[in-house]
């Protein structure tokens, strides 16, 4: 393990080190100040390249709030109305869903409707055209279903139609660049060597996270194929494609910095409740904000497949960002969060 830990937060580092993932990183902010910034392991599955502070890793759905914030920047500038129908900006879009519905996973388009091969991940226009022509699976704005793979194309195409820039360019120009955040999707070739190779915690992991065959969950993550296939997600095809819902590559510092910018107002607010009820993808009751989940204890953020996490605890004034290349569950980050809570609570008067 390498990095820095402020006095009083040693137990957080111990919790991180208790279960090495063979490549992971943790950044914790308290009162906006980094109190833990550590990493361990390797960038590659063969353990030949050490993980360092510049290692990028695919954080899966931890990237969803970033594309949501990009849309909300356009809302802040008066270029998008949250209550307007999406078709007002994207005329070919057939579903009667508002921009707010898209942001809150209420658009009833949880799965790409036309079967496509993995190569389709590189064809932005085709996948967006499929979504534009799709019929919603139920009445929009009635019940949520996390739009696991479609979310980024829905919001990204909205950005492109309103602003003119590709969504990857918009995020680079308006979020990553100005805030100094090392995160991106549709990576340029010179960043590929910095990417961590993903691997499964157990060989049966992809099957375990698929869900019941035929369910909303299973359909939503299966087309186009490849999001749980190491041959795809570790390839240039995936890393250089624009899949804002699922393939933002980032450091833990960048994820923490993103959330810090939301908290202090440099980026628009996300933790504004929009819906509480069943989520047909997650298969439990959730509260959705504008691109983030809110818990009953007031904390909020977004997890990512395999155990990645970006999360804010307003009561403790903390931000936690955990990223890993070994895809498993959230056991490691839950242990880290428990240690963090104890550390902060001991410091409180």
Q: How would you explain this protein's 3D organization?
A:
With about 350 residues, this protein is α+β, with helices and mostly antiparallel strands. The chain has one domain: 3-Layer(aba) Sandwich (Beta-lactamase), CATH 3.40.710. About 30% of the residues lie in helices and about 15% in strands. The strands form 4 sheets. The protein has a 7-stranded antiparallel beta sheet, sandwiched between helices. A 3-stranded antiparallel beta sheet has the order 4-7-5. The chain has a two-stranded parallel sheet with strand order 6-14. Strand 2 and strand 3 form a beta hairpin. Helix 1 runs antiparallel to helix 12 and helix 2 runs parallel beside helix 5. The protein is globular.
Comma- or semicolon-separated keywords:
Beta-lactamase; 12 helices; 349 residues; 3-stranded antiparallel beta sheet; 7-stranded antiparallel beta sheet; alpha+beta; 14 strands
């Amino acid at each position: 393990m390498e990095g820095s830990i402020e006095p009083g937060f040693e137990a957080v580092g111990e919790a991180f080190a208790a279960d090495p993932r063979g490549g992971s990183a943790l950044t914790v902010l308290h009162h906006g100040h980094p109190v833990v910034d550590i990493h361990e392991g390797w960038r590659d599955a063969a353990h030949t390249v050490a993980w360092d502070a510049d290692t990028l890793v695919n954080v899966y759905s931890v990237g969803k709030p970033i594309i949501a914030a990009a849309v909300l920047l356009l809302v802040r500038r008066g270029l998008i109305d949250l209550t307007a129908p999406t078709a007002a900006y994207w005329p070919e879009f057939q579903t009667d869903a508002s921009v707010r519905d898209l942001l809150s996973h209420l658009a009833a388009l949880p799965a790409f409707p036309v079967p496509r091969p993995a190569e389709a991940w590189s064809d932005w226009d085709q996948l967006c055209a499929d979504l534009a022509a799709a019929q919603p699976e139920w009445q929009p704005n009635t019940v949520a279903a996390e739009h696991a793979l479609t979310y980024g194309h829905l919001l990204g195409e909205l950005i492109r139609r309103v602003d003119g820039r590709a969504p990857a360019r918009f995020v680079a120009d308006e979020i990553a660049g100005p805030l100094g955040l090392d995160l991106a999707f549709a990576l340029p070739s010179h960043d590929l060597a910095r990417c961590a190779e993903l691997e499964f915690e157990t060989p049966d992991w992809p099957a375990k996270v698929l869900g019941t065959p035929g369910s909303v969950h299973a359909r939503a993550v299966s087309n186009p194929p490849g999001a749980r296939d190491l041959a795809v997600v570790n390839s240039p095809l995936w890393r250089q494609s624009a899949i804002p819902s699922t393939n933002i590559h980032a450091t833990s510092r960048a994820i923490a910095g993103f959330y810090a910018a939301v908290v202090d107002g440099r980026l628009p607010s996300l933790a504004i409740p929009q819906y509480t009820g069943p989520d047909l993808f997650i298969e439990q009751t959730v509260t959705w904000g504008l691109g983030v989940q809110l818990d009953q204890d007031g904390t909020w953020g977004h997890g990512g497949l395999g155990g990645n996490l970006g999360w804010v605890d307003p009561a403790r004034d903390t931000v936690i960002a955990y990223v890993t290349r070994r895809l498993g569950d959230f056991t490691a980050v839950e242990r880290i969060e428990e240690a963090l809570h104890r550390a902060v609570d001991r410091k409180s008067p």
